[in-house]
Amino acid sequence: MGDRYAPHVAEIRMALGDKVGESVILEDLEKLVKYRVPLEEAKRSIIKKHGGTGSVRKSLSELTPNDRMLEITVKILSVSKRDVDVRGVKRRILSGILGDGTGQVPFIAWKEFDLKKNDVVGIKGAYVRLWQSQLQVNLGERCEITKDVGEIPEIDAEILPTRLADVKAHMSNLCVVGVVLEARKEVVSMKDGDGERTIIDGVLADESGKLRFTSWIEDERITPRKTLRIENVYVKPFRGVPTINISEEASISLHEEEITPIDGALHCSISELLKRDGALDVIVEGNVVSVRSGSGLIRRCPDCSRVIQNNTCRVHGEVSPVTDMRVKSVIDDGTGSIMLVLSSELTETLWGHTLREAEEMASKRAPDSVERDIRESLTGKRITARGNMNNGEYGASLVAESVSFVKRDVKEEAIKLLKERGVHENA
Smallest Cα–Cα separation from 209: which of 235, 233, 232, 177? Predict the structure, then answer.
């Protein structure tokens, strides 16, 4: 049997048992594929042809995108209800985490099935989709769910926490464990006009990094230096960085095991940084390889601070602009590159000229003379930058909060390089 179809034939045999031999299954499969029948549809057709139920039994670790007619036995690790708008119609759905002995996968149920936390259930007719780069099990209205514990083996599974470094925008039903570094109460006005509400804003940290959080519930355990396990949180981006949201559906408990949160800013390579959906308080070091157009003197809307052209803001129309200065550069550390954005204050620090001096330069020379001078001054220089990284639809960028040139000891670097190549200093 060719390697190409071997796993698919094995999957079909799992669904049919000993009813049909491998050679017959392979012949049927090759024939259907030859006539351009999609592989998943071909497998379902063969199972149905030979008297199978059409469902394929898998463990969670075996799931792949676009799986259809699945049969799984799982434990409900978490479940919550929410109302969504589907084509203009409001409907209630369930979402949560499924677990078995091999892994955990988020799920969404498009019907209000009777599912409770810690239930062990058999599910037939589920399908899998990719959502936010994650596998997600979907339970449609035709799914069959069995709760007869006499026929379903007990599953020992506990929801696993997600590292803060792996948290991505729009994730839901997550479990996180971390130390509260900051926590402060704020009173906010609700958008729906439903009065005011007290929330808790702060910063959570684990060994992999830090993220901001917003708790929509007041809980005395959310205080600095407490180590918390928080289940059923969801994630929204704020200024391009994932932010953990704690709602009434979440459960909070003190975490007994000690963890060592990151101390200060996270030092990392650019390649490691780019694997994240966003990051709070990171430090990178690299060479300025380019200064982009749009650096130097810019004009901002006085109401929303957007960069504008021809004194016109796309939100507020014609305005009297405010002059500002910035640098949009690309830095590279040998492992990757990232856009680095510097404010007016940080531009002054690196470039060595104030905003007023920049305006005078532009008036005496040419409007783009400031950008050219900044490019000549910074390109090729090695710098260290600290700030927050966001990784959005326009690519990754680091908005710096502090920046400085790296003082280089050329002799020391040369000696180190020679040693790495096996050449001794006195050779």
Answer: 177
CA 5 to each of CA 11, 33, 245: distance values in angstroms, whole numbers, following the listed order: 10, 10, 45
The Cα–Cα gap between 160 and 260 comes to: 18
Integer-rounded Cα Rg, in Å, for the chain is 28
How far apart CA 344 and CA 83 sit, in angstroms, is 44
Q: Put residue 317 in one of left, alpha, beta given phi > 0 → left and psi -120 to 50 → alpha.
A: left
pTM of the model: 0.73
pLDDT tens digits for range 145-161: 988 655 556 677 778 89
40 class by beta-carbon count within 10 Å (0-12 exposed, 13-18 middle, 19+ buried) = middle
Cβ-count burial 189-226 (b if 16+ within 10 Å, e if not): eeeeeeeeeebbebbbbbebbbbbbbbeeeeeebeeee
Residue 59: Cβ within 10 Å count:
13
Find the farthest-apart pair of alpha carbons in the chain and give their distance in angstroms, rounded: 88
Q: How far apart are CA 300 and CA 310, in angstroms?
A: 11
Cβ 88 vs Cβ 58: under 8 Å: no
The model's pLDDT over 352-401, given as tens digits with 9 standing for 90+, comes to: 999 999 999 999 998 899 999 999 999 999 999 999 999 877 789 999 99
- Residue 253 has a CB neighbour count (10 Å cut-off) of 11
How far, in Å, CA of 28 to CA of 20, rounded?
11
Q: With H, G, I as helix, E, B as strand and everything else as coil, classify residue 278.
A: strand
Cα-based distances in Å from 165 to 77, 263, 410: 22, 15, 35
| CB-count exposure of residue 3 (10 Å: 0-12, 13-18, 19+) | exposed
Query: E strands along 20-102, which residues?
Result: 56-57, 70-86, 89-99
d(C-alpha 170, C-alpha 244), whole Å: 10
